[in-house]
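Recall that a protein's primary structure is simply its ordered list of amino acids. Everything else, from secondary elements to tertiary packing, is in principle encoded there. The following example makes that idea concrete.
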Amino acid sequence: MLYFAVVALATLRLNAWLKHPEATVWIVLAAMLILPSLVRRLRPGRPATGPAGI
C-alpha cells in the first residue's frame, strides 16, 4: 500500500508542477515500469542458489 501512496503523491506533485495531466500520467507510468528494474540491477546481488538453497 505504501508503494501506491508514493505513486499517488508523486503523481499529484508532478501534475501540480507540470500542469499537463497526460504528460504526468506517461511520466509516472514510465517510472513505474523502469525504476524497479534499475533498482534490482543496481542493488548488490545475492549469491545464486537453487530452490533448496544449494
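The mean pLDDT is 88. Residues 6 and 40 are 19 Å apart (CA to CA).
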